[in-house]
Design goal:
Blueprint lengths: L13 H54 L1 E7 L3 E10 L4 E11 L5 E5 L2 E15 L16 E9 L5 E8 L5
Antiparallel strand pairs: 1-2, 2-3, 3-4, 4-5, 5-6, 6-7
Length: 173
């Protein structure tokens, strides 16, 4: 503020106003960068969390279907065909029904149960078959197979891949 001898003038000079505006601009710019970093971190965390939930749900659905296997007729690294215990609500009876879990092999494809969608946007889906828990893995089903290993890789919008694995022991083999 200036006060001169010529009079009692009060107020801010133009230079003081410019300095204050420049300081406010610098503080605002730093705050904007901080907010932008927080928002980016939130979006990344949400994307990874959504992908983890999707992978966990996908493995749970696959586990539930494969635990009901009564007889597997064929199995490869990307598909398995089997008969499973099934309750028919129309006839009110238990029986067996054929199922196929498959992946088309294309990144971004889907894992299907017959023609129903189980998991979408799959980057990789691999099945392995074991005769004993710590035994060697095979890429095809054979009559001595007792365990099924699943590896599921999902890509999310944050450009990070998440891989989920499990081993399933069908109850009725």
């Amino acid at each position: 503020m200036t006060s001169g001898a010529a009079g009692n003038k009060r107020g801010f000079s133009l230079l003081e106003l410019i300095v204050v505006l420049a300081l406010i601009g610098i503080v605002g710019l730093m705050a904007g960068f901080g907010i932008q970093q927080m928002v980016s971190g939130f979006i990344f965390t949400k994307s990874v969390s959504d992908n983890a939930g999707k992978g966990k749900l996908g493995l749970l659905r696959l586990s539930l279907e494969m635990r009901r296997i009564e007889k597997a007729t064929s199995g490869t690294a990307h598909a398995i065909t089997f008969n499973a215990v099934h309750y028919d609500v129309v006839t009110n009876k238990w029986g067996t029904k054929p199922y196929t879990i498959s992946w088309d092999g294309a990144a971004g494809g889907s894992v299907l149960l017959n023609s129903d969608l189980l998991i979408a946007k799959v980057k990789n889906f691999t099945l392995q078959y074991y005769s004993v828990y710590n035994g060697a893995a095979a890429t095809t089903w054979n009559s001595s197979s007792r365990l099924i290993g699943i590896a599921l890789t999902l890509a999310d919008t944050a450009q990070t891949d998440s891989t989920f694995t499990t081993r399933i022991t069908p109850r009725n083999l």
